[in-house]
Amino acid sequence: MLQIAIDGPAGSGKSTISKIIAKRLDINYLDTGAMYRMCTLKALKDGVDLDNQLAVIENIKDIAIEIKKNRFYLDGKDVSEEIRREKVSKNVSKVAAIEFVREKMVSIQQKIALKTDVIMDGRDIGTHVLPNSNNKFYLNATVKERAKRRYEELKEKGESVNFEEIKENIIKRDAYDMNRDHAPLIKADDALEVDTTNLTIEEVVSYIIQRISDSND
Questions:
Q1: In what order do the strands lie in the sheet with 71-74?
Q2: Is a pLDDT exceeding 70 seen at residue 22?
């Protein structure tokens, strides 16, 4: 099975790049970040104190997650737009840092990767979810550029957003993700780092596909 691992911090272009590569190579794309966003959304909707790890664990024990044609269903309801809202973005790192949550999601992700060719993006794909993949990439960009991308994305959706606040949230999220105890955000030793700051989406896609082709010849 072809397993492609795309890691990197928020706003580095992981999801956009991964979706395009999946279409070009005709393989399945699994947005692992969306799975953690669904856990976060469920906890927020149910009024759970996110600082209470035991309460969060209890809340998501029987969570029902489905992904159909890149639409995300939480307990049977399409939440594809809801999980991208800023309130979820601000809190997802806290929920994703809980070991029980990560192991539950990783188990689902690994089962999918055993059955089909797949590209996954996240923060610990190359180090934790697909450690044996021969196709690992770590996307990065400056904080300013990542904040700009996020700002423009939310503005297009009609949300009222503040650039400096988004930038500050990204800095905090980076620190949280990189310093969590379980499966922190780090570049896998055998991953190829790609700085996307001054590259177009097409340039990044073409580069990664060429590297995948070279490594699988």
A1: 65-68, 71-74, 77-78
A2: yes
Confidence check: pLDDT of 148 > 70? yes
Counts for the chain of helices (H) and strands (E), in that order? 8, 8
**Taking a C-beta distance cutoff of 8 angstroms, is the pair 41, 83 a contact?**
yes
Q: What are the structural domains of the chain?
A: 3-198 (3.40.50.300)
Q: And the tokens for 119? A: 């590209």
Distance, CA of 208 to CA of 27 (rounded, Å): 15
- Give the other-Cβ count within 10 Å of 58's Cβ: 13
Phi (first) and psi of residue 21, to 5 degrees? -60, -40
Whole-number Å distance between alpha carbons of 136 and 4: 6
Per the CB < 8 A criterion, the answer to whether 117 and 1 are in contact is: yes
Q: Which token pair is 194?
A: 């790609």
User: What pLDDT, on a 0 to 100 scale, did the predictor assign at position 217?
Assistant: 66
3-state SS, residue 3: strand
List residues bridging with 30 in a β-sheet.
Answer: 120
Contact by Cβ (8 Å): 36, 100: no
Gap between the Cα atoms of 128 and 78, Å rounded:
28
Quote the pTM value.
0.79
What b/e sequence results for 18-56 when a residue is b if at least 16 CB atoms lie within 10 Å of its CB, and e otherwise? bbbbbeebebbbbbbbbbbbbbbbbbbeeebebeebeeb
Say if CB 153 and CB 10 are below 8 A apart. no
Cβ pair 38, 79 in contact under 8 A: yes
CB-based contact 177:184 (threshold 8 Å): yes
